C-alpha cells in the first residue's frame, strides 16, 4: 500500500513538474546512467583483480626463483600484480641477456676413497653465474615503479564519475527544485491566487528534482566508499609486492662483490683476451 502511494506521488510530481524541472531530471538520469555503468564495470574489474591477484601471489610465493613464473610463461590475466611482475621480469631478462656479469663461484667438495679407508680428496670446483650490476638493477626498479603507477591509474579510472554523481547530484536536483519553486510562486503572484490548491502541484513538481538527485547520489556514494577502500587495499598490496620482488631480484641476480674483486676479475679477463690474440693472428 505504501509503495502504491509512493508511486502515485512520484507520478503526480512528475506530471506537475515544470519544463525546467524535467530538463534537470533528464540531466540527472544521464548522470545516473554513467554512474551505474562505472559501478558495474568497476565492480567486475576489482572482483577479477582481487581473485586473480590471490592466485598470482600464491603461485609466486610457492617458488624460490623469482623468475620461474616468467620463464614458464604462466599468465594471470586481470591481476595487477602479475602485470607489474611481468614488466620487472622482462626488464631483468633484457639486462641478463645484454648486460650480463659473469660471477665465478668457487666451492670445495670432499670425495672419499672407498678402497683406502680414511683417504679423502678435496676437489676445487668452479661455477659461473650470470648476474647484473647495480645500474641494471636500478633500471628494473624504475620499470617496477612505473608499472605500479600505471596499475594504480587503471584501478582508479572512472572513479571521478562517481565523485561527480555524489557531489553534483544533490546540487543539480536542488537547482531544479529552486527553479520549480520560483516558477510556482511567480505563477501564483501573476494569478493573485495564493492558496494551497494552487501551490501544492507546483511545489510537488519542484521537489521531485531533489528526490531524483538523492537517488542518483546515494548509490554512487556507497559504491564509491567501498571501491576506494578496495582500491587502496589492492594498491598497498602492490607496493608491498614490488618491495618483495625487488628484494628477491637483488639477492638472486645482483652482483654484490667488492670493487677490488670486480677489478681483479676484469683484469683477468683482459689478460686472457690478450693471450688469445696472438693465437688468432697466427691462425
- How many E-type strands? 2
Sheet bearing the most strands, described? 2 strands, antiparallel
**Uncertain spans:** 107-126, 279-283
Dominant shape: rod-shaped
Strand content: 5-15%
Structure classification: mainly alpha
What is the count of distinct domains?
A: 1
End-to-end span in angstroms? Answer: 104 Å
Mean of residue pLDDT? Answer: 80
- The total of helices stands at 8
SSE string, helices as H and strands as E:
HHHHEEHHHH
Give the proportion of residues in helices.
Answer: over 70%
Strand order across the biggest sheet?
Answer: 1-2
Radius of gyration: 35 Å
Write a structural description.
With 283 residues, the protein is mainly alpha-helical. The chain has one domain (2-98, 132-255). Helix content is 77%, strand content 8%. The protein is built from eight helices and two strands; from the N terminus they run ααααββαααα. The protein has helices at residues 2-16, 19-61, 68-71, 80-98, 134-156, 159-191, 196-253, 259-282; strands at 101-112, 120-131. A two-stranded antiparallel ribbon has the order 1-2. Strand 1 (101-112) and strand 2 (120-131) form a beta hairpin. Helix 4 (80-98) runs antiparallel to helix 5 and helix 6 runs antiparallel to helix 7.
Amino acid at each position: 500500500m505504501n509503495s502504491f502511494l509512493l508511486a502515485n506521488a512520484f507520478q503526480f510530481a512528475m506530471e506537475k513538474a515544470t519544463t525546467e524541472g524535467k530538463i534537470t531530471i533528464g540531466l540527472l538520469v544521464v548522470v545516473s546512467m554513467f554512474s551505474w555503468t562505472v559501478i558495474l564495470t568497476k565492480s567486475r574489474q576489482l572482483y577479477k583483480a582481487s581473485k586473480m591477484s590471490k592466485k598470482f601471489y600464491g603461485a609466486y610465493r610457492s617458488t624460490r626463483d623469482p623468475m620461474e613464473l616468467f620463464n614458464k610463461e604462466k599468465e594471470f590475466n586481470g591481476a595487477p600484480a602479475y602485470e607489474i611482475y611481468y614488466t620487472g621480469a622482462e626488464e631483468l631478462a633484457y639486462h641478463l641477456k645484454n648486460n650480463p656479469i659473469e660471477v665465478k663461484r668457487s666451492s670445495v667438495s670432499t670425495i672419499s676413497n672407498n678402497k683406502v679407508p680414511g683417504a679423502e680428496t678435496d676437489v676445487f670446483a668452479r661455477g659461473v653465474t650470470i648476474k647484473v650490476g647495480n645500474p641494471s638493477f636500478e633500471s628494473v626498479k624504475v620499470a617496477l615503479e612505473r608499472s605500479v603507477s600505471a596499475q594504480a591509474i587503471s584501478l582508479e579510472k572512472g572513479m571521478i564519475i562517481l565523485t561527480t554523481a555524489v557531489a553534483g547530484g544533490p546540487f543539480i536536483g536542488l537547482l531544479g527544485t529552486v527553479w520549480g519553486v520560483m516558477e510556482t510562486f511567480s505563477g501564483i503572484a501573476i494569478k493573485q491566487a495564493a492558496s494551497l490548491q494552487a501551490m501544492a502541484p507546483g511545489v510537488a513538481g519542484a521537489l521531485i528534482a531533489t528526490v531524483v538527485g538523492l537517488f542518483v547520489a546515494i548509490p554512487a556514494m556507497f559504491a564509491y566508499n567501498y571501491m576506494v577502500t578496495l582500491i587502496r587495499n589492492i594498491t598497498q598490496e602492490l607496493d608491498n609486492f614490488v618491495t618483495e620482488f625487488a628484494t628477491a631480484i637483488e639477492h638472486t641476480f645482483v652482483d654484490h662483490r667488492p670493487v677490488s674483486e670486480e677489478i681483479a676479475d676484469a683484469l683477468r679477463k683482459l689478460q686472457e683476451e690478450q693471450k688469445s690474440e696472438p693465437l688468432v693472428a697466427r691462425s
